[in-house]
Amino acid sequence: MYREPSKQLIDLFRGWPNPALLPVTSLTQATSTALSTPSIYQPGLQYGPDEGHPPLRQHIADWLTSFYRPKDPVSTARICISGGASQNLACVLQVFTDAAYTRNVWMVAPTYYLACGIFHDAGFMNRLRGVPEDAEGIDIGFLEKALQEAEAKATAEGNHKPLYTLARPWSKIYKHIIYLTSTFANPSMKVVSTHRREQLIRLARQYDALIISDDVYDFLQWPSDPNADLSTVELASVPRLVDIDRYLDGGPIDVFGNAMSNGSFSKLVGPGVRTGWVEGTEKFAYGVSQTGSSVSGGAPSQLTATFVDHLVSTGALQRHIKSKLIPSYRARYQQVLSAIDDNLVPLGFQVAARTQLVVGGYFIWLDLPPSIKASVLTERALAEENVRIGSGALFKVQGDASDHHQDFEGSVRLCFAWEEFDQLYEGVRRLGNTARSILNKR
Ligand SMILES: Cc1ncc(COP(=O)(O)O)c(C=O)c1O
């Protein structure tokens, strides 16, 4: 297809932080302090304890306590350092699932598509199932029915005990995995309501499911009202699933609990630091640390954990989030929304999540008018306008062949974090050109 050679690529697909948002000055300070202080660099350059660099565990626990305000402080023992949310997901599956006994992975759909590969690698190919989103974030009735059916099938097949991953003193094998990004979902930006979170915890307890929530965008939040004061969103706007599991109906039903929080510094410092954390019950966090690769290699990301610890313990990261990331992402989000209002809403496009009081994360999920297919818009926007966006189909649960499977041809994802600020409006304007040309030529 014809492309005007002068049009520069505008990338509204890539889910990376813009380079201007990387905290290079604070990191320079952090690395030079760490590498010139023997008490920091010596452990930093050795194999780390299985649970991770102790000061970072403690400082993460304090920082989470001040943001989420659970009834009791987050203890250091609830935290295990990871190599980021993706790496940690793989470790959790190695320790807490069995490729035969664990029946299904239930993924809220549309889903963070790259998680599918991690589940496939763990032996769940063709056993991933999509659970639709609804106004409160996850269709709990659908999930309950599907869990019932899966259990009936397991009983009929005689699937009563793990075959490959035997439970060890530090682990248990769950029958189901429920995977979601409960706050500012990638791609839909939805936040699961507190009521729904409670229902989800009860269901997980009833069906022996582990809820894995990628809580990677929680700190990047702002009011949807462009005139509202940012001080209204200094604390988390909803309790995490892991916090609800800690207290609901008297607390976890066993020492491992039914929910874990998968945290990451990728969106707060930079993906290259490959450092994150997992929070769960103390026994659960210890279980993750006993993944064979951590026992052999020590905690992942041991050296970078010392750098990140400097950022967290000095408050440099908290200041970066508050004074740089949130104002920048808020402005970027508003810029894309105003471009959508000017160029796409008149054509019948809609952004459902904009009605939430608090919005955040990296992505806008844009619903298309019924006469435009996401795959066509995505392909033609690139070919004709040199604009990259994420086609809805990318966010399907890969390998789910069930009746209810959705194709998401009615939506696309736009990322406002990566592209230069000055190009954001133009990117959406060009998308409007493509949409108009599809509508006229139909
Ligand atoms: C929902 C979600 N989970 C996990 C990740 C990857 O996190 P990490 O870089 O910590 O592996 C991303 C990155 O886009 C994401 O959006």
Which key features would you list for this structure?
Aspartate Aminotransferase, domain 2; 42% helix; alpha/beta; 15 strands; 4-stranded antiparallel β-sheet; binds pyridoxal-5'-phosphate
Cα distance spanning the termini? 17 Å
Instruction: Kindly provide the radius of gyration, computed on alpha-carbon positions and rounded to a whole number of angstroms.
Output: 22 Å
**Largest sheet, if any?**
7 strands, mixed
CATH topology of the largest domain: Aspartate Aminotransferase, domain 2
Total count of domains: 2
The CATH architecture of the largest domain can be given as 3-Layer(aba) Sandwich
Q: Report strand order across the widest sheet.
A: 2-9-8-6-5-3-4
What small molecules does this complex bind?
pyridoxal-5'-phosphate
Order of helices and strands: EHHHEHEHEHEHEEHEEHHHHEEEHEEEH
What do we call the CATH homologous superfamily of the largest domain?
A: Type I PLP-dependent aspartate aminotransferase-like (Major domain)
Decide which structural class fits the backbone: alpha/beta
Question: What is the percentage of strand-forming residues?
Answer: 5-15%
How many beta-strand runs?
15
The residue ranges in which pLDDT falls below 50 over 5 or more consecutive positions are none
Q: What is the global morphology?
A: globular
Portion of residues within helices = 40-55%
What is the residue-mean pLDDT, rounded to a whole number? 96
Question: What's the number of helices?
Answer: 14
Protein name: Aminotransferase
Domain Aminotransferase class I/classII large: 43-418
Keywords: Aminotransferase, Transferase
Pfam family, one: Aminotran_1_2
